[in-house]
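From: lab user (bench 3)
To: helpdesk
Subject: output format question, protein + flavin-adenine dinucleotide

Hello, I'm new to running complex predictions and I'm not sure whether the block I got back is the full result or only part of it. Here's what I submitted:
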Amino acid sequence: MEAVASENIVKGLVEIVGQKYVRADDVIRWTYAIEDFAGTFFHPLSDKYGPPDIVVKPHSAEEVSKILKLANTHKIPIIARGGGSDMTGAATPLKKKGGIILDMTDMNRVLDFQEGLNAVRVQPGIRWGELHHELAKKGVTAGLQGPHGFLGATLGGGIGGNCFSINSPKYGWLNENILNLQVVLPNGDIIETGSLANTKVKDWYYRYCNGPDLVGIFLGAAGSFGVITEFTLRTYPIPEYSATLAYSFPDTDSEIKFVFKLEWYGYVTDLWGIAFFTLPDSLKRILAPLVGERDLAIFATEAYDKDIFKAQKKAIDKMAKEFNGIAIPVEGICRALGISIINQTEWMGGGIFGKVMGPNGSDTCSIAHLPQWQRVVGSALEIMKENEDALSGSIPLIGADHFFLFAQLLGRGGVANTFAMTPADFMDPENLKKAQDLYQAIVESYMDTGVTALYRIGKESQFLTKRFKPEYISFMKAIKKALDPNNIMNPGVHGLGLEEEE
Ligand SMILES: Cc1cc2nc3c(=O)[nH]c(=O)nc-3n(C[C@H](O)[C@H](O)[C@H](O)COP(=O)(O)OP(=O)(O)OC[C@H]3O[C@@H](n4cnc5c(N)ncnc54)[C@H](O)[C@@H]3O)c2cc1C
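Helpdesk reply: Thanks, we reran it on our side. This is the complete output you should expect:
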């Protein structure tokens, strides 16, 4: 087979996008060899990630189409990439395969916004910060603010990785807000889904029409079925009244019941629930003087009308009391946890990651059935207890007393998010290996409970995709084979296209 970065292929790419947008030099290649997060090194496949052979920046669907045709002719892997922050190896090539990274970040424009449509048409390389800026000028909001702690991530990457976002408890996951996609298929065909599949329709975006929902198969597909080149996203009015509130609860069970009801009634915009018993000692020491050993719910609420807002806050207070909740001043708690309230509803949990995890920890992307969430936590805590001394060498590095769980009771659709941190010393291979093994054991234990699933799988979890029911995996493989017979689209994600590796 011809080398990926051969003169012939580089020349072909230069003809498509121009000299300036094709790079095959080592500095650039290695910049794209890792994702924007140290935690990626914990994944079982992390030593199998490597640099691409070439990085290309396209500027239109037509350019992407020509690139995919070229890649198909030469059977070269194609990995679409936005901010590269997925943390699951999803935006990184496999070392053995290399390939072309399609850096989508120059396709970052707002294309169409029409009042009355409640929708905005954008290119996938747009970053959350840019989108907010553009929408604010039109007097609307996307509702969702972007993934926690990383506003540089792109919307296209969020679609590829099933992003849940700040404000997901109210507005849903990113992919619940997608009304249409333009996708370049691996053979180079450019398709529109939903209402735009009709040749006459130009600027009306509706998802559920013209036959089956073909938007769905590209959502969360991590670029394995095609490259998204445009899409339409719902927009919302900007709520005029908003507040961040905090309550403490005597136990996790009461807190879970409160969170569940709060979301069910539609009062919560975003929420962090913290279960005291899961925290590392360092965080317990920070929180105990403020709330004792009680669990904590910090959340945002908003409304469009002053009177409704007042009534809503009253209803929330009544609801909290039903579960023995006590209102606490929110500013002190947020300061202690490193959460900055940007403008009441746009607040970030990024600080808490930095404080307790530092650069040397990893988390899992698991969601669990909220009412049964304690089972998931219980199983992970058991493993952690068994391994209490295993990683003690790495502890000074992160300022946490030992590896720990941090729980975010997301609420949306009754799911909770759990972060199991397994800190490690990257300079000590033995210590790193122990952390990786522990990470895998914890994730496996989550799955064993039967009430949890992962929402960003990427290339991270071959051991998890093996748990898919055989009929499901065959169905996925059949779609992959039909769309991408040469297996060029992001081989390795979701356990697809790894046959030769195995
Ligand atoms: C500190 C921190 C906090 C985070 N918090 C969250 C969180 O709260 N919720 C959450 O969901 N994630 C979170 N993440 C993970 C990550 O930021 C998000 O998943 C984000 O949406 C990824 O966007 P990206 O542009 O970086 O995607 P990338 O990593 O570039 O890509 C993600 C996937 O999408 C594919 N892709 C990219 N562009 C396209 C395209 N145009 N067409 C087809 N496929 C494409 C890629 O191939 C890859 O498989 C966090 C990460 C960090 C570092």
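A quick orientation on your result: The domain at 7-105 is CATH 3.30.43.10 (Uridine Diphospho-n-acetylenolpyruvylglucosamine Reductase; domain 2). Let us know if anything else is unclear.
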